[in-house]
Amino acid sequence: MDEKTVLHSGLFLITCLLALTIASLATEDWKHDEEMSVGLWEICDKIECSSHSQSGFEVTGLLEAVRALLIISVIFQVISWLALFRNLNEPSLSQRLTTFCLAIAGCCTGLAMIIFTIGFQWKSPSDYGFSYILGWFSPILSYGVATFLTYYLRLHIRQNYEAM
Fold first, then answer.
1. CB of 7 within 8 A of CB of 89?
2. Between 150 and 59, where is the model more confident?
3. Residue 100 to residues 80, 95, 128: CA-CA distances in angstroms?
4. Which of 57, 17, 18 is CA-nearest to residue 41?
5. Helix (H, G, I), strand (E, B) or coil at 89
6. Cα maximum dimension of the chain
7. 14, 58, 75, 78 - which has most CB atoms within 10 Å?
8. For residues 73 and 109, is the Cβ–Cβ distance under 8 A?
9. What is the distance between the alpha carbons of residues 63 and 39, in angstroms, rounded to a whole number?
């Protein structure tokens, strides 16, 4: 694989990562039972959705921490996408910035998922929803993309060095 193909593949994978994280952050199906579904921002019953404060659900520091960590993760993912896009036109040290930002984004998302899993034990039996599952795919994909980019770009640098 040449360097441009690796960079284009990395941009595609980071775009998928951003879509997963934003979908997880924005949708309200983190936990659900037969009567309602709970998200980071809203609680929905079969008829309508309302914010946590309107529905009488107490917004704790844990929920705010999950929200904040996911938003920070999205910011680092955008930075990594921009750094990799910049690398398409002029190769630079932005490869390291990209992988560093992806690692930080993966840590933030993973920590947010752990906080949600441990901190929110509902009184009634409920299941985890698709937003929660998407949230767990995000740190896995983040570390996978960082590893992919590091391996192939280092391999390309080594091949250029040996050709000299």
1. no
2. 150
3. 8, 9, 30
4. 57
5. helix
6. 68
7. 14
8. yes
9. 10
Total length of the chain = 164
Q: Which amino acid is at 150?
A: T
User: What are the tens digits of pLDDT across the range 29-74?
Assistant: 888 777 777 778 887 777 777 776 665 666 678 888 998 999 999 9
Q: Which residue has the tokens 């775009």?
A: 15
Tell me the C-alpha distance between 5 and 88, whole Å: 10
* The pair of three-digit structure tokens given for residue 114, joined into one six-digit string: 């752990």
Output phi, psi for 40, to 5 deg.
Answer: -75, -25
Instruction: For the chain, give the mean pLDDT.
Output: 83
Dig out the tokens for 160 from the structure.
């250029």
Closest of 111, 97, 106, 96 to residue 140, by C-alpha: 106
Distance (Å, rounded) from C-alpha 160 to C-alpha 84? Answer: 19
Q: How many CB atoms neighbour CB 126 within 10 A?
A: 18
Domain boundaries, the chain: 3-30+60-124+131-163
The pTM for the full model equals 0.84
The domain 3-30+60-124+131-163 having CATH identifier 1.10.150: the answer here is: no
One-letter amino acid at 9 equals S
CA angle 143, 74, 5 (to 5 degrees): 55
